[in-house]
Amino acid sequence: MLNVLDNHIGVDGIRNRNDLARIKGLVAEAAEGLLVLNANDPLVIAMGHQREPEALALVAAADDLPPAWLEQRAGGHRAASYSMQRTGMIELHWECETVLSLPLRAIPASDDGCIDTMAPAAAFAACLAHGLGMDAEQIEAGLRSFGLKQGHQRGRFEVLVQEPWQVVLTWGDGPEAIRSLARYSIGKTEKSSPGRRVLLLTAPDTRTDTFLKQVGQACQGFDLVITASWFERLGREPHEVPALLAEGIRSLGQQAPAVIELGVETEAVAPLAELIQAGDFCVVCTFATELMREGLLDALGSGQKLA
Q: Residue 307, Cβ neighbours under 10 Å: how many?
């Protein structure tokens, strides 16, 4: 259980995070083996209160280890920690020993530590694998090889084009995810030649107005953001989502990226191809990864598709 956030508030009668926690808690109740919980999220950690410590694994950020996590580790039960710093570590603890300690950069899919969300994902995966009976050597071998095959990152930080610009296809839902994309883009361009950090941003139209504005506010760090609506609309007019995302971006004031509203995401691909310049680093954030991949490769045909 990774988290309880605002993504689905306002959908299907979900009024707040407590409602969502009750729904997600049904999955936790149904777990017959190991239940892996985010110890930094109070709504998630509460899902483990009726379970014995040996039936739990707790995961927490290394710079924010809560009492429940410390008790879990001190008792010799499964616990994992992670750091999202580029030089951070992922560690797995079991029977009062550290059985795995791996640099984030050692995971190929982390892109030399630029994709910091790989750190918590790896910590959760390590707990799950250990609970399924894999030893530390097997887990480390799996993490060190993840990202070496193209299918490992299909639709998630998938590099589509690398010359004369870079284009990365991924998806992200919510302000937390978009902030991680901004950190990724900054990390990838720190040492490169001058160019713009460009984001094509979409979101489902089932999200609330407040949520969509918060997603826009998370775009700080990009130079240009193109806002668009999800290709599959469920109630809003095509212009509504792009406008709400753009409103959030412009609320950042002088630090706000430039913003262009372009309607439906599939129709935004051609204008993006005209706007992008040599040296730009462009992230395309979409839920329709298969559809958008095809459109992007057609529109940016002068670039080089990776094997």
A: 4
Least confident interval from 90-99, 226-235, 272-281: 226-235
pLDDT of residue 220: 96
Assess whether pLDDT exceeds 80 at residue 305.
Answer: no
Of 98, 123, 147, which residue sits at a domain end? 147
Among 241, 227, 171, 174, residue whose Cα is nearest residue 199? 227
Domain that holds residue 295: 153-299
Averaged pLDDT of the chain: 93
Same domain, 71 and 132: yes
The yes-or-no verdict on residue 246 having pLDDT over 50 is yes
The answer to whether the bond into 164 is cis (omega within 30° of 0) is yes
List own/partner pairs for 246-249 with CB under 8 A and 24 or more apart: 246/216, 247/213, 247/216, 248/212, 248/213, 248/214, 248/215, 248/216, 248/217, 248/218, 248/219, 249/216, 249/217, 249/219, 249/225
- pLDDT classification of 3: cutoffs 50, 70, 90: very high
- Which two structure tokens, joined as six digits, stand for 215? 């997603």
Asked whether residue 169 falls in the same domain as residue 108, the answer is: no
Same domain, 124 and 169: no
Output the six-digit token pair for 104. Answer: 């984030």
Residue type, 221: G
pLDDT at residue 193 in the model: 66
| Helical (H) or strand (E) element with 93 | strand 89-94
pTM beyond 0.85: the answer is yes
Q: Cα–Cα distance between 286 and 147 in angstroms, integer? A: 20
